[in-house]
User: What shape does this take?
Amino acid sequence: MTDLLFTNARLIDPVALTDSIGALHVRDGKIVEKFETTPAIEGATVIDCDGKCLAPGIIDIGVKVSEPGERHKESFSSAGRAAAAGGVTTIVTRPDTIPSIDTPEILEFVERRAQADAPVHVLPMAALTKGREGREMTEIGFLQDAGAVAFSDADRVITDTKVFSRALTYARSLDALVIGHTQDPGLSNGAAVTSGKFASLRGLPGVSPMAERMALDRDIALLEMTGARYHASQITTARALPALERAKRNGLNITAGVSVHHLTLNEMDVADYRTFFKVKPPLRSEEDRLAVVQAVADGLIDIICSMHTPQDEESKRLPYEEAASGAVGLETLLPAALRLYHAEMIDLPRLFRALSLNPARLLQLDAGRLLEGAPADLILFDPDAPFQLDRSKLLSKSKNTPFDGARMQGKVIGTWVSGERIWGNA
Amino acid sequence: MTFRAKHLLGIEHLHPTEITTLLDLADSYAEHNRKGIAHRDVLAGLTQINMFFENSTRTQSSFELAGKRLGADVMNMGMQASSIKKGETLIDTALTLNAMRPDLLVVRHPHSGAVDLLAQKVNCAVLNAGDGKHEHPTQALLDALTIRRAKGRLHRLSIAICGDISHSRVARSNIMLLGKMENRIRLIAPPTLMPSGMADFGCEVFENMEEGLKDVDVVMMLRLQKERMDGGFIPSEREYFHRYGLDAEKLAHAKSDAIVMHPGPMNRGVEIDGTIADDINRSVIQEQVEMGVAVRMAAMDLLAQNLRASRSAQTQMV
Assistant: This one.
């Protein structure tokens, strides 16, 4: 029996939505109790938090670990260390690897590699259609039995609505979670940025922000038809929000996420063709960014993720249109999200509701809470500690961060997974 | 020194005085070209490489001729058939080329921003000969010189830019340049060929040719870029010509002394009626080609001066 006692902690509780000084007792990898004052617990190892924040560890849905296929970009070992350093205690991995994770056999390979190499929890997603080609559904039942926590074709949209509706219907019978990418494929074809003044100035092919709403509207109609459990991975535009709000009000089983990049950057950041700012969907206008931040604070958008997408230098050092999309984010998710806190747009309990609690609820996990019986997946961080990001110091194998050189605040002091410290000095 | 730029990547980063300096020099080169006065000492000993990742006859020959008139050693690299096909990245190509120590690099590339990217990797002066849908600065400069010579000034003119603005780097550079010189810019295009947000650049936007051309001093036609179109932007060429092609009837809405320009190559009967293009009283299209050589001579002259100055400063530091 091992006891840990976190004392003098600023406890961030996303369930009670409180932010108060107290103590937390952990036994055998699980949370026992939250205290307002320091209790005396015999034999417990005391960790004095010195008034810093103690919160449930981040659960990041949609992390690309480039195994199998592109281990030079990111491995379970490097992604796991990056996650630990970033305060992410659970990564939910994407199936858009080479080959796609679309059979139980490939899924087992991933789980084996993750178990051997990653210090954090790794929960894999599987493809919804074979080869992510949008034609035939995968073995959703077998994949679920093998441990797939959600089904998604990642950034590909299933254009054939008959195929998609059948997959949703089948997924519903297994209560399987389907994660969709909401971009109308026709309208967004070939686009590198969001259409508007900036796209026109730079002569880059743009997509109307309306492409997101169109795809969301379609998916909502299919949910009404099938009753499936559905999560829109990234809602990034103001025009999509009313549709989302209506669907929730009508009782559909729908949630939505947003990447931290869309919450903290806008289209102008691309500036002189900086390809590290090329993400999918493209960065939006400032008006859209502000609307989406408000939606997170209000709880309309449920989840903040990093949409961690490692790319090597070769795939980024190209003309903007040819460059690969995506940015790494495991290590910058927390400090970037804290920009919203420092800008007084959201408080810490609500931030962790989006980073930890809601992802746990979506995946039907006990984590993400400071409640009795929850796993002791915890992070201790100083929300104010300033630093300047140096991309060469990232633990990810790929260094494609849009925050290189950025002044940020928020440092992870310690990360615990099931009560075991995996980051920071004891 | 009123021309400070190290590269000529676009009009966006040029100051109005730099534009005027360049045009003044180009004007004198234009006169000397007409008189047959040679200036083979200006770029003597310098190497100019023309690197075209996209087909071009007019621009490439214009740059070649400009370089040769100023005494540079000019080399043309047709990049379409070369290493790009073998999978070499743009940056590797740039580094390879840089190792050959060119002094002036003239680049055209099908992707917006590609010339900026290349310029970051080389130690010579880079001239953008057109990048994707982004900029084509020497075209805008030669248009400006043509206008200035025809109208006697390059400010407070009403200028219509008509046609396929969406796919046009010429339009973007011209909007930038003519705006900096304080002209009134009217953009005329079918809505499918008009980029979004153009009103934010201080332009007036028209969908109707007759309204847009009303009382303008300059009519700038653009080529319908069929090769850049993926999918239907217009129903047909004949409907386009009917509604947006420049003919005598539409031109009658402009000022009686309005000049007609076209960056070439022309699609006669698509965006411009042949008789207008050939009307020596209205069309300055041939003069544009002539000014192209002069403007490129001036641009390379000024960049070479800056290049030599920075190199001698480096030598002194060593």
In short: Strands of chain B lie at 47-52, 73-78, 104-109, 125-131, 158-162, 184-188, 204-206, 218-221, 259-261.
